[in-house]
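To illustrate the input format used throughout this study, we show a single complete record. The first block contains the structure-token representation of the backbone; no residue identities are included at this stage. The design step must infer an amino acid for every position from geometry alone.
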């Protein structure tokens, strides 16, 4: 595995606000080698601003991989040291916020299953009081803009100034084309109400499968989104979570090159 030596990590302030903001990395951190190799291959593309990896995974049903936990955080630190790319992790509890910050995670995000629960969002927000860290807030799994807005308000009231929205689609019953229907009008309305917030599209969780990622990403760019969050894995078919929707870092480059960007 080739490494990129002596890279000075970029500060998050150099990256935040860059347009388009490209966030990528595995659904879940699985092993140190997987995190470091993913990060290294992403860094070689020169197109990724922020490395994502799930450390604690809120799975809908028990029995599947629920995240490697705190022991994965030094792997992200190592990936950042090698590649210079700042990191982002999902948090759902005060302890997770504390641990992520202790290991220098640069951006925290609140997941769709957490945004639905005001007690959990408040717990995260309280743990963020007095901390300067950008926070991304995914839409709730159900199409409720008030819950999404409530989460933004709780985080803002805790003093967080850099807040972004992530549109990851909305769940519904039965088999549908998308894993989570985009319902674009809802995200657009949320952006209309909060023009000062970044809005990032997450084609991976909208699509649930790789073959339609490009068309969803293109739609988001056509709608003037500020960036994309796309899951990448060194061996997507054997990923421990969300295997069907992940792509390799090299496929990410192909996809980003296929997108027609706004001037
Ligand atoms: C994820 O980003 O891997 C994740 C669990 O996403 P969501 O909260 O959108 O389901
Ligand atoms: Mn995922």
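Output of the design step:
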């Amino acid at each position: 595995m080739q490494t990129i030596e002596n890279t000075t990590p970029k500060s998050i302030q150099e990256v935040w606000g860059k347009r388009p903001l490209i966030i990528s990395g595995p659904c879940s951190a699985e092993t140190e080698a997987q995190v470091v190799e993913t990060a290294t291959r992403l860094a070689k593309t020169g197109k990724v601003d922020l490395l994502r990896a799930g450390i604690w995974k809120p799975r809908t049903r028990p029995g599947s991989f629920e995240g490697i936990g705190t022991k994965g955080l030094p792997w992200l630190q190592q990936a950042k040291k090698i590649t210079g790319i700042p990191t982002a992790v999902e948090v759902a509890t005060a302890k997770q916020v504390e641990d992520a910050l202790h290991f220098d995670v640069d951006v925290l995000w609140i997941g769709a299953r957490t945004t639905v629960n005001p007690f959990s969002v408040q717990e995260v927000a309280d743990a963020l009081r007095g901390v300067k860290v950008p926070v991304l807030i995914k839409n709730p799994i159900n199409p409720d803009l008030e819950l999404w807005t409530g989460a933004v308000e709780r985080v803002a009231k805790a003093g967080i100034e850099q807040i972004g929205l992530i549109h990851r689609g909305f769940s519904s019953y039965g088999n549908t084309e998308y894993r989570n229907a985009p319902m674009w009008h809802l995200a657009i309305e949320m952006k209309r109400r909060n023009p000062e917030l970044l809005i990032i599209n997450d084609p991976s969780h909208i699509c649930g499968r790789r073959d339609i990622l490009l068309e969803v990403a293109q739609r988001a760019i056509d709608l003037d989104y500020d960036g994309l969050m796309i899951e990448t894995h060194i061996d997507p078919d054997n990923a421990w979570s969300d295997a069907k929707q992940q792509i390799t870092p090299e496929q990410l480059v192909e996809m980003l090159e296929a997108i027609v960007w706004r001037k």
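Structural context for interpreting the output: The radius of gyration is 17 Å. The CA atoms of residues 37 and 72 lie 14 Å apart.
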